[in-house]
Amino acid sequence: MILGKLPDLRETQSGRDLIAIGVEQGIERGIAKGSLIGAIQTCQKILGQNCDSNADLARKSMEELTTMAAELQASLRSRLAKLQ
Predict the structure, then answer these.
(1) How far is the C-alpha of 73 from the C-alpha of 39, rounded, in Å?
(2) CA-based torsion, 42, 43, 46, 51: positive or negative
(3) Residue 67 region, left (φ>0) first, then alpha (ψ -120 to 50), else beta?
(4) CB under 8 Å to 43, separation ≥6 — which residues?
(5) DSSP run (H or E) holding 78
(6) CA distances for 22 relative to 25, 32, 40, 83, angstroms
(7) pTM of the predicted model, to two decimals?
(8) Hey, what's the torsion of the CAs at 27, 33, 36, 41, to 10 degrees?
């Protein structure tokens, strides 16, 4: 049995390493989500739709955003095909 108080995880090298990994992954996910949100808003503008706000889109999951982007992409393709 361990006697005494264990150190705070943030005070250990392993804890700091794990936090750094989590921060890096969070940044990568945030960049990916932000790029997808920007693409969605751009498609909405091109199609003449009301653009969803950054905050509304940020609350959606990546799966929901990916679906939205695919639907907008299909709309853009359809509109482009009619122009040709």
Answers:
(1) 10
(2) negative
(3) alpha
(4) 69, 72, 73, 75, 76
(5) helix 62-83
(6) 5, 15, 27, 47
(7) 0.77
(8) -110
Place of tokens 């949100």: 37
Each of the 84 residues of the chain gets a pLDDT tens digit; together they read 566 788 888 889 988 998 999 999 999 999 999 999 999 999 999 999 999 999 999 999 999 999 999 999 999 999 999 888
DSSP string, 21-75: HHHHHHHHHHHHHHHHHHHHHHHHHHTTPPPPPHHHHHTS-HHHHHHHHHHHHHH
Residue with tokens 């705070």: 8
